[in-house]
Amino acid sequence: MNKIKEELNTLGDPAPTVVMNGDFSLPIIKWESLEVYGGSADARQQAKLLLDFANEFMLIENITQPTRGDNILDLFFTSNEELLYNIRVEDTIMSDHK
């Protein structure tokens, strides 16, 4: 996260559009309220770093349905929601994630 933050900070103004996505495996984040609950101290620290990073760069997490079991693990952040047209969480044969 620090390396990404360093790179983004070198870009200057106007702030760049950021898109960041992947399997973050942080089921301890409640995305509706942006709260961290449960988990180990290390997991809570990682979750807080991600939330602080998203807040600093005005990133909005756009996945609202579970992507593995009852958890939202696969995340899609952007600083410009106008880039998004349609987000679907669908089953796949390639993974146990949606």
From TrEMBL:
It comes from the Eukaryota. One of its GO terms (molecular function) is catalytic activity. Pfam families: Exo_endo_phos_2. Residues 2-98 form the Endonuclease/exonuclease/phosphatase domain. This is Endonuclease/exonuclease/phosphatase domain-containing protein. The lineage of its organism: Eukaryota, Metazoa, Ecdysozoa, Arthropoda, Crustacea.
